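Quick look at the format.
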Amino acid sequence: MKKRIEQIAKKFLETVHDKDIIILSHYDTDGITSAAIMIKTLRRLDKKFFVKIVKNLEESIISNLPKDKVVIFLDLGSNSLGYIEQSSLEDVFIIDHHQIIQQIPKNVNIINPELHGKEKISTSGLTYLFCKELLPESKDLAKLAIVGMIGDVLEKNISRLNKQILEEGEIITKRGPLIYPSTRPLNRVLEFNSNPYIPGITGNPKGVLNFLREAGICSENGKYPSLMELDEQEMSKITTGIMLRSPKIKNGSDIIGDIFLIKLFNKLEDAREISAMINACGRLGEPHIAIQLCLEIPDAKKKSESLYVKYKRLIISGLEIASKIEKIEGKSFVIINAKSSILDTLVGTIASILSNSPFYEDGTMIITMAYAGNKIKVSARGVGKQGRNVRAVLNEVVEKIGGEVGGHEFAAGCLIDKSKEQLFIEEIQKSLEIELVKI
């Protein structure tokens, strides 16, 4: 992988010598941190560039790109190789970590661990390593790679390359329950915590206060301590209390892990919270604020915090709506068609939260749907990261009815035409039921 990054970085420097650059990146945490790392690096190299953050890489976006510029796709592109090949773009670079199911076109220079050892690393991690080859004095950007890693939930099993990035970024790590932010008052943290979803506590202020009272955690002058301010005994009580209320959590390793603290705006921040704030900005249509946050531009922190509060409220509301919607259920799958009642940018988060909740057994496939203009956004998750290959199931259906697919084995999504709504539901049911018969 390292050698591949070196080769592509060298070719990139040769190619951009006298050309402008277009950066297209995904709107989630990994995509936005990748874009921020690239922006800072290209600025230091005094290169001209344009940045566009997108929800989905549709064929029309690719076909409208100028042919004479260097195009670099971040956290995108691996699922759009056919469109890129047809586009006649002269110089294309892809840094991505999603599954590849197509041949690599000749006009594409790609860095993707799926082609080289399948090491678990985020696009932001790959982008950091790539940019460090372009400009060795880029180690200050390692913290953004770690935020992106957390955004893609890769922090529980740190890979070799991620260990290297952690060391270079001088990240502070501590062990504790994986609820965030670890630097904020516990009562607010528990109320808005959704991963893990804690029955009777998540979204329930009274339940939170009862929980803290039972754990012996008291407020001082009306303010509760943060997780980082608790002693070992208090940490243990919080962990035990969460486990007792969450049937999905089987042992301590499910809830205890590394808490990562990074320095942002000259203050120690919980990297999980920064990751969630970036994600909130992107999903609420304000990715430029998320990039400003990553670049530590004054005023970006307050704006992103405000969007994050709004996002958390929308998620809690979305979970309530999802609980009331009439569902299509079969053996080991559930389809939640929110139509226009939940934002299309939130259904992936809703699916992820439900997949970590106590409501569904391991191996269940959760499929959420929401209208996105004249399209439908579909997000699917495999509970417990077990059972059928989510990406493969969606791909099989989309090959029949049309659309675009992307993602991983147990977390994937697709975009289909709104006119295909009922057909998609019928085909996904058929596909899942047939696969069950095969099993």
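Next, a different chain entirely:
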Amino acid sequence: MDCAYNPPHRIAIGVHPQLPQAAVEAKKIASFLQERGVEVFWGKLYDTSFREQLEDNTDLCIALGGDGTMLRAGHLCAPLHIPILGINLGNFGFLTEVKQGDWPSLLPQLLEGNYWLEGRMMLQATHLRGSEALGSWIVLNEVVICRGQFVRPVTLRAQVDGYPLATYVADGLIVSTPTGSTAYALAVGGPIMPPDLRNILIVAVAPHLSVDRAIILSEGSVVVVTVRTSHQAVFSVDGQSPVTMLDGDSVRVEANHNTACFVRFRDRGYFYRNITNYMEQNPTAGETE
């Protein structure tokens, strides 16, 4: 679905639980907004109580943290059709829109409706053991099916729409959204995809005598990856805790009907300027001499 615009009257502020400065900043932002007549609440993104408050007619969520915080906010807000404004308190902040010191000058634009909403495709990942579904997750970045603690490749059989695509002997296989194309998929040589595309990307991690080219599929494709291994294999959704897979287990990945909506103040050509700047000087690498 498209991102629907609603002038924000009730705003949630979600903070990263392991960033002490996030709570301090949340209080400042809450006070700023309340002085301008906005109803505000804030809390930790990972608390059940925060989600319960989100469900109560919230118009917009401000996420304080880095890209991991934005992913968590996307998981919570997309099913509720709540747009997200990211304020970067982390190292990278590629998904966030506002630097920590800039929000006093930009939040008035938000309240005036002087912004636009960028829709990001999401995926659905389902863990299958035979015909039994063991769990299901929504995905903003990627699903990674890979080896576990043993440093040995696994065999991964990929199907698309019920037909064999390829068999990979590799450390892993990434099934990604366009948002995730600039994350782990980019690190292993995948293509950079504009964020407004609605395609599914498949790229292998350290393939051995296997297909080593990324594959881009249409939004309507259904990908099933089956693990064949005699040792540990796992999968992870958006960097969350890994889920153990047994030999013969599968992960089915397909488009999810939800769309993550990000608040943007910059012009629509911001994406390529951003990616160029980040690749020239990676903020996660720390200071250089």
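The CA atoms of residues 62 and 85 lie 5 Å apart.

See the schema section for token definitions.
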